[in-house]
Amino acid sequence: MLLAALVPDGARGQLADFGAGTGAAGLAAVSRLADMRATLVEYDSEMVECARRTLALAENGELAARASVLRADVTLRGQARLAAGLADSAYDHVIMNPPFNDALDRPTPDALKARAHAMSGDLFQAWIRTAGAVARAGAQLSLIARPESIAAIVDACGGRFGGLECTALYPREGADAIRILVTAIRGSRARLRMRAPLVLHEGEDHAFTSFVDALNNGRAAYPRRG
After folding, report:
1. Angle subtended at Cα 129 by Cα 126 and Cα 135, rounded to the nearest 5 degrees
2. Which residues contact 18 (CB under 8 A, 6 or more apart)?
3. How far is CA 133 from CA 90, 113, 176, in A?
4. Which overall architecture, per CATH, does domain 2-216 show?
5. Angle formed at CA 80 by CA 28 and CA 134, multiple of 5 degrees
6. What are phi and psi of 172, to 5 degrees?
7. What pLDDT score does 226 carry?
8. Distance CA 50, CA 56 (A)
9. Ranges for the Methyltransferase small domain (predicted)?
10. Where are the beta strands (DSSP E) in 86-225?
11. What residues does each domain of the chain span?
12. How far apart are CA 107 and CA 74, in angstroms?
């Protein structure tokens, strides 16, 4: 939901959700933005089927009119990418929730979760390379990752996306950051900006702050500063 909130209020056009899974982030953005259409890009066949079943529900008819599911590997290049349905310069927004856990971390015994959670190879280079190919000039890239991935993200954006804005997410005051939110603009030459931290929970319980609760429930967006 925080990934969806990076797409600003009033945004319109075409959005690609890379690694969409069941489509939660892309559909959350579409439900808030009446002039946005989304392509949910996912490779795992089980997740693709879940996303398609979601759109087939009668109560999701309005979303289904503005969203589609594309089974494709976002690491494909050149003609293979085009043949899979990821066209050049087709999108105004690209959002992604990559499988950013390191492959050396303790693996989950669930095979489906393992595929969705653990990266292989130079993942950020591959995914952001494709994002750069399918994004129009001036398009916004938005992603969520672990804090230790910031160097790889900055490196992958180089020459493709600039004006990076990074927000560290903290579970509560005094704790270490657990995630980062990053946005960037296709073709921008602006410098990197480290934004004020975002604290998720108040006190010792799991209640979200009022602002984070609004982000999680589509009542607010988290727009760029630049």
Report:
1. 135
2. 41, 74, 94, 95, 96, 97, 98, 127, 130, 131
3. 9, 28, 35
4. 3-Layer(aba) Sandwich (3.40)
5. 40
6. -165, 170
7. 85
8. 10
9. 2-105
10. 91-96, 135-145, 161-170, 179-186, 193-194, 198-199
11. 2-216
12. 23
Spatial separation of the C-alpha atoms in residues 176 and 156, rounded to whole Å: 25
CB 14 within 8 A of CB 95: no
Q: What is the pLDDT of residues 213-222, one digit of tens each?
A: 999 999 999 9
CA angle 12, 169, 161 (to 5 degrees): 45
Closest by CA position to 50, among listed 131, 112, 5: 112
Single-letter residue type at 210: S
Element (H, E) at 56: helix 45-56
Rounded (10°) angle between helices 150-157 and 123-134: 40
pTM, rounded to two decimals: 0.91
Classified as helix, coil or strand, 126 is helix
* Torsion sign (Cα): 117, 122, 124, 126: negative
DSSP codes of every residue in 63-121: HHTTEEEEE--TT--HHHHHHHT--TT-EEEEEE----B-TTSPPPS-HHHHHHHB--S
Pick from 53, 92, 93: nearest CA to 69: 53
For 60-111, the pLDDT digits (tens) are 999 999 999 999 999 999 999 999 999 999 999 999 999 865 555 555 555 5
